[in-house]
Write a structure and sequence with these properties.
- By secondary structure, this protein is an alpha/beta fold.
- It has 15 helices and eleven strands.
- An eleven-stranded mixed β-sheet has the order 1-3-2-4-6-5-10-11-9-7-8, sandwiched between helices.
- It is globular and about 65 Å long.
- The chain has a domain at 3-251: Alpha-Beta Complex (Amidase signature (AS) enzymes).
- The two termini are 14 Å apart.
C-alpha cells in the first residue's frame, strides 16, 4: 500500500485498530524521504533512530492495551526553528550549525504526548527571514510540482514535505505569511492560528509580537486534528492565552450556505497575477453556488502594511538576534578581543538577508529615529487592527488571495529584495492584526503551479475557517491532486 497517500486521520485510525504498525508507517516515510530528499532538499536532518524508537513505543503501547493519542503513529515534519532536545536545531543558519537544544519546544512535547512520530527537521529561510526558502545557509528547497520553482517561505521545507507526501502533517511558523504563502505555492493547506493560541515556548524568535506556530496538511480534517493537539495555554509563554480550546474536528460539519464572506477590494488590485485572479474567481463561484453571500468590505490601511511590517518585524529581530554573539552557544569566530569576536561571529554566521533585516531594525530603534519609524509603525499597526475589527463586524470571514503570484523561478528575485518582500503583501496584515489566517488550495496555473486562497477570520475562530475549508474541499478536488513527477 502507498502509505504516502493516506491522511493523518486514516493513519492514526489504522494504527489504533492494529491494521498497520506505527513502525511500518515510519519505515515507509523514511524510505520516501530517502528517495525524494536528494532531489527536493526538503530535510536538513532526518531523525531515523528517534522516529523508529517513537514508532516502536506506539506499537508497544497499543499491544499493552493502553489508550493511544490522537496522532498515533502519524509522521510529522518540523520546521528547523522548533527546538528538539539533543537533535539539531539550526534555523538554517551557519551561526547555529550543529547546535542541539537541551529541551523540546512546547509543540514538540504536545506531539509526543499525542503519540506522533517526528521524522526530522525541514529546511527554511534563515531565521525565518524570506519568502522562497532560498535564504537557507545550506541549500534551497525545490518545489515538488516543478523543481525549477521555489517552494515559498520561510516554512518552505515543511510545506514541501506535505506536498511531496513525505509526511501527512508538518509544523511551521508564520511571522508575515511564512505558513500560508508556501502552502499556497506548494498546493497544501496552511494555517496561522490567532496570536497566543499556540505556545511559542521553544520557537526560535524572529519577531515576538508576530510569530505563531501552525499546521500544514492536505485536508481541513487533518489540520483540525493537528491544531487541536498543539493549541492551549502554556505558562512558559507569557503571550499564551487562556481561551478554551474547542474540538476543531467536531466543528467541521456544516456547509457554506448562509455564510457572509467579505471581499476587500484593496487585495484585488494591481500586482495580482491574472491566473491567480481567475482561480479565485472560480473558487468564489463555487462558494456562491453553495449558498455563501459575498459582501464588499474595506481595509483602508492596507497600503501601509508592508512598511509597518518591515519596521516592526526587523526591530524585534534586531533585539531577538542579539543573543547570537558566539558566547553561549553556536558558532564562535576567532578574534583578538571580545568586540572583535562578536563582530566576526555575526559576520560569518549570518547570511545577507538576516544582516539586512538586523540593520534595518537597529536603525529603526536607534536614537533620533525611534519616534519617526518604530513608534509611528506601532501607531499605524493599531489602525490596521481596527480596519479588520470593523470589516469583520459585517462578515463572518474575509476571502483573499494568499499570494499575488504562483511560485516563481529559483533565483528570480534573489537580487531584488523589495519584489521578494511583496510576495507576502496579502499575508502580513493578518500577523499585524493577530488574527487567524488559512490558505486553501483553489486551482492551478496553465504551467501546473498551485494557487491558494486565503481565509481570514475573527480572533480564536479557527474552527469557522476550517469548517468553510472543509465544505469547499467537499466540492472540489484541488487538495487531492499530487505532483505527477514524483515516484
Amino acid at each position: 500500500m502507498a502509505y504516502s497517500t493516506l491522511s493523518a486521520g486514516e493513519i492514526g485510525g489504522r494504527v489504533a485498530r492494529g491494521e498497520v504498525s506505527a513502525e511500518t508507517i515510519c519505515r515507509a516515510s523514511l524510505e520516501r524521504i530517502a528517495a525524494l530528499n536528494p532531489q527536493l532538499k526538503i530535510f536538513l536532518a532526518v531523525d531515523e533512530a528517534g522516529s523508529l524508537a517513537a514508532a516502536a513505543a506506539v506499537d508497544k503501547k497499543r499491544a499493552a492495551g493502553q489508550k493511544l493519542g490522537p496522532l498515533a503513529g502519524v509522521p510529522v515534519t518540523l520546521k528547523d526553528n522548533l527546538c528538539t532536545k539533543n537533535f539539531p536545531t539550526t534555523c538554517a543558519s551557519k551561526i547555529l550549525d550543529g547546535w542541539k537544544p537541551p529541551y523540546n519546544a512546547a509543540v514538540v512535547e504536545a506531539l509526543q504526548a499525542a503519540d506522533a512520530v517526528v521524522m526530522g527537521k525541514a529546511n527554511m529561510d534563515e531565521f525565518a527571514m524570506g519568502s522562497s526558502c532560498e535564504n537557507s545557509a545550506f541549500h534551497p528547497t525545490y518545489n515538488p510540482w516543478n523543481p525549477a520553482y521555489v517552494v515559498g517561505g520561510s516554512s518552505g521545507g515543511s510545506a514541501a514535505a506535505v506536498a511531496a507526501g513525505l509526511t501527512p502533517l508538518a509544523l511551521g511558523s508564520d511571522t508575515g505569511g511564512s505558513i500560508r504563502q508556501p502552502a499556497a505555492l506548494c498546493g497544501v493547506m496552511g494555517l496561522k492560528p490567532t496570536y497566543g493560541r499556540v505556545s511559542r515556548y521553544g520557537l526560535m524568535a524572529f519577531a515576538s509580537s508576530l510569530d505563531q506556530i501552525g499546521p500544514f496538511a492536505r485536508t481541513a480534517a487533518d489540520a483540525a486534528l493537528l491544531l487541536s493537539v498543539i493549541s492551549g495555554h502554556d505558562r512558559r509563554d507569557s503571550t499564551s492565552t487562556q481561551v478554551a480550546v474547542p474540538d476543531y474536528g467536531a466543528q467541521l460539519a456544516g456547509g457554506l450556505k448562509g455564510l457572509k464572506v467579505g471581499l476587500p477590494q484593496e487585495y484585488y488590485g494591481a500586482g495580482l497575477d491574472p491566473q491567480v485572479r481567475a482561480a479565485l474567481d472560480a473558487a468564489r463561484k463555487v462558494w456562491e453556488d453553495a449558498g455563501a453571500e459575498f459582501v464588499e468590505v474595506s481595509l483602508p490601511h492596507t497600503e501601509y502594511c508592508l512598511a509597518v511590517y518591515y519596521l516592526v518585524a526587523t526591530a524585534e529581530a534586531s533585539s531577538n538576534l542579539a543573543r547570537y554573539d558566539g558566547v553561549q552557544y553556536g558558532l564562535r569566530a576567532g578574534a583578538d578581543n571580545l568586540i572583535g569576536m562578536y563582530g566576526a561571529t555575526r559576520d560569518q554566521g549570518f547570511g545577507p538577508e538576516v544582516k539586512r533585516r538586523i540593520m534595518l531594525g537597529t536603525y529603526a530603534l536607534s536614537a533620533g529615529y525611534y519616534d519617526a519609524y518604530y513608534k509611528k509603525a506601532l501607531q499605524v499597526r493599531t489602525l490596521i487592527q481596527r480596519d479588520f475589527n470593523e470589516a469583520l463586524q459585517h462578515c463572518d470571514m474575509i476571502f483573499t488571495p494568499t499570494s499575488p503570484t504562483p511560485a516563481f523561478k529559483l533565483g528570480e528575485r534573489m537580487d531584488d529584495p523589495l519584489t521578494m518582500y511583496l510576495s507576502d503583501i496579502y499575508t502580513i496584515s493578518v500577523n499585524l492584526a493577530g488574527l487567524p489566517g488559512l490558505s486553501v488550495p483553489c486551482g492551478f496555473t496553465s504551467a501546473g503551479l498551485p494557487v491558494g486562497l486565503q481565509l481570514i477570520g475573527k480572533a480564536f475562530e479557527e474552527g469557522a475557517l476550517l469548517r468553510a475549508a472543509q465544505a469547499y474541499q467537499s466540492l472540489t478536488d484541488w487538495h487531492a491532486r499530487r505532483p505527477g513527477n514524483l515516484a
